[in-house]
Amino acid sequence: MSDPERGAYTPHTDEPLAFDARRPVRGSRPFPLTLIISGVVLLTLIVAIALIYRGGVRAPNEAPQPVGEPAGQMKGPAPLDAQPADPAAGLQIYRSEGQAEEGATPNFAPPPEEPQPRPAPSTAPVQSAGLPPAQTAPTTPAAPPPAPTKAPPAAAPPPAPAKVVTPPAATTAAPAASGGAAAVQIGAFSSAALADKGWNDAARIAPGAAAGKGKRVEQIERDGKTLFRTSVTGFASRSEAQAFCDALKGAGKSCFVK
């Protein structure tokens, strides 16, 4: 009776399989052919390795085996007519420098010169001539003194004017070169020449702003040193002086507005 749920590839389960590999055929075990083939191959490899080792590898104290024919047996005596005889063999064409004639006296180089002693300085007397006597200039007779002249009678002195006493004028400070209340101090220099150079450099940096401005140099003492404080004067306003100082700072100079 057929089962409708069985597929085309579903094995039969109703009956036992016709062949079972686990059971021996006719009651005997299968012959291990693969094991025999593996043993033969292994034995062949062992024999081959033993032959190669014995034939190619020598013992530590064993001499290497000669290969080919020895070189001593290959070489033989050269034939007589292999090379032509040298016709100049045994002839002496020139005499060697090393062969000296028997009984000849060797010619040695002269020995070096010995230094001669320095001659002694001569002690001849030096003749000294005496100085001639000094010649005195002839004396000239002194001129007679001039005759005294009579001075004219002195005139009567005029009467002295009356002295007018005037009070001393009051000292005033020197005015600045140009008018203006603001000034820019450009530095304190160690000499007056450097102070003048500093003022000229400042005027060269900003010639438009320094046009018509004055120069003031004050000598001061600081820490035992004499300094010359230099300022550019004559600015109409503090803003104008600050603009001039900013131009100097832009050129790498130092200044401030007073």
Automatic annotation (TrEMBL):
The keyword Nucleotide-binding does not apply. The keyword Transmembrane helix applies. One of its GO terms (molecular function) is peptidoglycan binding. Residues 176-258 form the SPOR domain. The chain crosses the membrane at residues 31-53. Residues 76-85 have a biased composition (Low complexity). InterPro entries: SPOR-like_dom, SPOR-like_sf. It holds the Pfam family SPOR. Residues 108-122, 141-161 have a biased composition (Pro residues). Keywords: Membrane, Transmembrane, Transmembrane helix. Residues 59-85, 99-167 are annotated as: Disordered. This is SPOR domain-containing protein. It comes from Caulobacter sp. 73W. The lineage of its organism: Bacteria, Pseudomonadati, Pseudomonadota, Alphaproteobacteria, Caulobacterales.
